[in-house]
Fold Heat-inducible transcription repressor HrcA.
Amino acid sequence: MTIQTEGTRVLEQLNDRSREVFRRVVEGYLDSGSPIGSRSLTRDMSERVSAATIRNVMQDLEYLGLLDSPHISAGRVPTNLGLRLFVDSLLEIAPVDDRDRAALEATFGSNERDVGTLLDRVGTALSGITQGASLVLSPKHEAPIRHIEFVSLAPDRALVVLVFSDGHVENRVFTPPPGQTASSMREAANFLNAMIEGLTLSELRSRFRSEIATRRAEIDDLAQALVESGFAVWENEGEPQERLIVRGRANLLAESPHAEDLERIRRLFDDLERKRDIAEFLELTETGDGVRIFIGAENKLFSLSGSSLVVSPYMNADRKIVGAVGVIGPTRLNYGRIVPIVDYTAQLVGRMLTDRAQD
């Protein structure tokens, strides 16, 4: 990331005293959420320095864009750039402690076979452990399909009912092409059901493209448009249908007693509940394996909230990224603790998916 490169370059320009002042300000802020003053730092520095000297260092760090003065007082808080620099270069990652590890592993201890239910439990456990809001993006269901049905809800809304061979049923709302009729919907469903033959959605899409080219005369143009529209929704072209599980909303509200913070958090959850840019959540993780941290405006999905997101992808048995888990909270998250917890949770989910694929 560009910010990380610039931040590392800035850090290399700091002498030992400036680096220590910066680190202690950030650590103090992450611990208390309050501006850190020069007088309090004089008690913690590794060398004896005056409060005036520390104030001068703080002013230099502020000039570099790493610290900010939220009030007239001498206290400082890290900027988003400062937090990024700290996370990339100075953050000390703690191991997942035994109690947190046991709480996460307990969510997988039941005989529950439904992946969605298990991921729901994972989200609840992750929220409880971190005291933040947890996000779990669950994978699309890839079992063979047994039956498909279209149901008209309104001129611009339709429902597709997907019945899978393992008994799983999904109802998905999508926007049909203009002018669809009950007969064209039945025709489209009949056309698809005749092709299913134990195929998954991905396999059915491939078969559909081939069949539609040779059997155009068997369905009218409107039914064809309906089929194409339905598959576009199912296959994540423009309107993703992965299920986003959000747990722990109250934790974020409890963290923000001020009216402006409450409004910020409400905007965040309005975005989540309307599922805006949910595809972005998974795309954030697709550049590589491992945990990623997004601070404030670095994260397009939650930039309006001014929050931080710690997110990690998880993989299926074929080592393909199929979903993600994460924690969102204020920018003063305890990153050293949250990062390994998110990483461990993603590993557990991937292991669970692999075990179920081998059963």
Observations:
- The longest helix spans residues 335-358.
